[in-house]
Structures are given as structure tokens and as C-alpha cells.
Amino acid sequence: MSGLAASDPVSVTMLEQLNMASAAEDFFALLGVDYDAKVVNVARLHILRRMAQYLAKEDFAGLPDAVVAERCKDMLEKAYRDFVVSTPIDQRVFKVLKDAVVPAQPKPTNLVRLGTLK
Q: N or C: which end of the chain has fewer CB within 10 A?
């Protein structure tokens, strides 16, 4: 992380601090969310991706930074819980995992059987 902490000057917003975070542990530290390192070690990218999905539904325009920070914390806690009670394979937040369960469509054949010709 860039060395920013939640107690840094108010000129840096929570969203800016989160944008500068580089590891899952940074997000947990900035937002004050407790976590089990075993869960984060297995599902770090999945947790952050799920958090991003939840945050994409939020509108932070005009909100005080304290409210934004609380909402971000709620979204991280929710994303983390998803992977405490389930696995990345079960949650399938990434396209490669989603595609893994879609049955492959048979390729159309360009074969014309002789018996069908007249």
C-alpha cells in the first residue's frame, strides 16, 4: 500500500485511499474489517471482485466521506462473508469460472450423409 491509513488528512477521501490500495489486506485495514487470513489467502481476488460488484450498484455522489467509508466497509464485509460460507468455485465471480459450468455446444457438422442425397 502507499502508506495511507484511515487516519490520514481528510484531503484524501476514502475512495482515493481505496483506489491506491494494492493488496486485499490493505482494503481490510483501511476499512477496519476483521478477517481470517486463511480465507483471504484463498479468495482475495474473488472477495475484491465481489466487493467491486456490490460497489458498482452504489451512488456515492455528494455523500460525506464518513458515509462512503461505512458503505464501503459494509460491502467488503458482505463480499468477505460470501467467501466465508462458500468457495470461489461456488460463487463464480470471474468469467472463466462461470464459463466452466456452461455445457459446451456441439459444433455444427458440415457433413452431408450420402443416404440423404437424392
A: C
Report the 3 state secondary structure along 18-72.
HHHCCCHHHHHHHHCCCCCHHHHHHHHHHHHHHHHHHHHCCCCCCCCHHHHHHHH
Report CA-CA distances (Å) from 28 to 23, 43, 65, 71, 75: 9, 13, 17, 13, 11
- What is the C-alpha to C-alpha distance for residues 82 and 63, in angstroms, rounded to an integer? 27
**pLDDT at residue 11, rounded to an integer:** 76
Average pLDDT, the chain: 80
